[in-house]
Model the fold of this input.
Amino acid sequence: MRNIKIFFILITFLGMIKLYPISKNNMNKNENIKLFLEDFYNQISVKEEQLNKAAWLLETTGSKDAADLVASLSNEYKLFFSNENIYKKLIEYSKIKSLDNLTKRQIDILIDSFKANMIPKELMKEISIKESELYQAYANFRPMIDNKKVSENQIREILENEKSIDIRKKAWEASKEVGAALAPKIIELAKLRNQAAKHVGYDNYFDMMLDLNEINKEKLFQTFADLKKRTDKSFNETMMQINEVLAEKFSVPANQLGPWAWKEPHGQEDPIKSSKLNDIFSDKDILAIAKSYYEKMGFDIDTLIKNSDLYEREGKNQHAFCTDIDRKKDVRTLNNIKPNPQWMETLLHEFGHAVYDLNINEKLPWLLRQPAHIFVTEAIALLMGRQPYTKEFLMDFCNISDEKLFQDIHNGAKRRQLIFSRFVFLMTEFESNLYSDPNQDLNKLWWDLYEKYYNLPKPKNREGKADWAAKYHIGLAPVYYYNYLLGEVLASMLNQKLIGLTKDNIIWKKQAADFLTNKMFRVGSSYRWDDLVEHVTNQKFSIDSWVNECNN
Done:
């Protein structure tokens, strides 16, 4: 690991923003507000870029110096959104009826950003420090199997290929060790986050995050209930098939199967997917395939690849992600590439986020140079990540022509959607309960929800553990996971739209890319997410396409 010395001059911007007065003249009103916004963006954009670069250093090195810098910059950034005078002025601006749509949209987004940070400065600082410590702890943690450190990739390889039950159990249990190390830090953070939420008028952090991200809690849980109800029959049939296959594979009764029998530590992927997928990608240059895929759509990703960190090493975060450093085309992804289908999917997924960011109109106001919502960019990433499991992709990029394999992979993709949805239901209900009461027995809650949504018995001897805390998002991307399932639903809507345009099942065409770029990417967050969905698909957000894919 490199030693990093970073010198940074912190500039305190609070109080430097000009609070332009509201004129009686409508033209002057709008002009004054635009001057205020421009002044604000000129200063906050510098702070955001500095924070994002420091976070990139932390994620790629796990350095203590980088963690300290992120904590300091994160606190400075949040302080910038806690100026009460600016917040009051934004509220005042929002009441002006003559605002044009883009200005109104910016004011609304800023009000939510400020609202989340109108908390005591000491509490804000403490949260920033605790979060950076958690990032560092996660980046540097490696579990042990038989006194040997192993990576997340190595654990997944064991669960993918190992036939010995004892070795599989060891690997699965090792995947949970990080939970024991992180759980006390996460619970402490949850309580601090709740303090912040209550200070601005919410019952807890979960409720605050949904509201400030323009998601109605009641509608979200109703949507998930509808998804579950309309796919329960297919899910139950899928689980019967999975239990039969795994029981035969490991020579144990179905009621004795544990999560160690699955191919992924958290039980969110298809555990009986075709092993031939591994053979297909084992000798492939998946980076070259991903590059070719996006080039066929007309996207130049050479600079993206150059700026990204693509292969695993000690001290580096094992969780893939994409980040837009400056909203001016410095977009990067972090991956830990291995030649397997999981990383083929992940690479296409993260590059999907990236092409979205890279194609947002640079002429938009700074604040609007981002996707309309987290789940909207997830929809694009998920749509791209689905492609390695399609007949057309395997024929085009891997020269495969096995019709039986195509059918097996299609069935596996359907199983995966059903299984993944249940994990999202679990995660969302778990986080809702976590922030309602961080002092409860969270491991019992985790496995009770596992039984509820998977119809499987909880594993034995997990009392007193912290298996829930092994899931990266709970501590480091809180109240986020619901976006993946909303994203899958939107991905199905977009897929239906795109294949209608291309007249076949191939979406890696310039025609599809041009449509997405012009109708979706370029507009950034000029629209609210629900308005954007209707703008792109010509219909309101609907679960029908996803449900049909899962049931047919």
